Amino acid sequence: MEAGESVVRYEAEGGQARLIIHRERARNALSPEVVHGLLEALTRAEADPAVRVVVLTGAGERVFCAGGDLGQLGGEGGFLATHEGRRAYGQLLLRLQDVRKPTVARVNGHALAGGLGLVLACDLAVAAEHAELGTPEIDVGLFPMMMMALLHRHVGRKRALEMVLTGERLSARDALALGLLNRVVPAEGLDTAMAELVGKLAGKSQAVLALGRRAFFTAEDLPLPAALEYLSSQLSLNVLAEDAAEGISAFREKRPPKWNDR
């Protein structure tokens, strides 16, 4: 940890928890402390009933996250301990999807290598137009092994291979066209765009969002017949939820629904 300062800052306000990678001088790189700090912050956000949306971002205005910290690549404690540290990053990617609340990446700047993996692991992503996204590991003799599991779920095979083989960076606009981002806005409009999107998510039934997100990620890797069978069971659960009854009643009565998040 740097200078006695937390490398992950946690801010909760207005229904959202903002998780900030706070290593601006190190380009918000992923140290073991950052990975574990983010895991702990996700658990904290999930346990707080006042938090309805989780936002992940980086400190400053230039870099969201530059990926793994090459200065700590060797790690401490021997080979196996270092390997476990890399596995923790994989656990973080899974946790971002497993947390029972919507996650949004606020891409304030460049998202590279493992930093791009964080963006892809979040449900939604809004980027400042100056941001660049990419997998430049090949240029230092490495390969983006772990985040590839998410990359080829977002883009086609040819484009994914082009990204990891060449290491070329994408502009935010090009990343948007590929489906890596939801929105790209001028830097000065980033927080306004985030507030709009977070407000929409916070206004939904949290129980139904949690059920639906879990169903989405589970069905993603199932063969089509199995996916349809599974999703039919989840729909049956959904219609039994209190908020489903409230939503239908509100629609019929032409009024806004009053969610109980159950």
Automatic annotation (TrEMBL):
<dbReference type="InterPro" id="IPR014748">
    <property type="entry name" value="Enoyl-CoA_hydra_C"/>
</dbReference>
<dbReference type="Pfam" id="PF00378">
    <property type="entry name" value="ECH_1"/>
</dbReference>
<protein>
    <submittedName>
        <fullName>Crotonase</fullName>
    </submittedName>
</protein>
<dbReference type="InterPro" id="IPR018376">
    <property type="entry name" value="Enoyl-CoA_hyd/isom_CS"/>
</dbReference>
<dbReference type="InterPro" id="IPR051683">
    <property type="entry name" value="Enoyl-CoA_Hydratase/Isomerase"/>
</dbReference>
<comment type="similarity">
    <text>Belongs to the enoyl-CoA hydratase/isomerase family.</text>
</comment>
<dbReference type="InterPro" id="IPR029045">
    <property type="entry name" value="ClpP/crotonase-like_dom_sf"/>
</dbReference>
<dbReference type="GO" id="GO:0003824">
    <property type="term" value="F:catalytic activity"/>
</dbReference>
<dbReference type="InterPro" id="IPR001753">
    <property type="entry name" value="Enoyl-CoA_hydra/iso"/>
</dbReference>
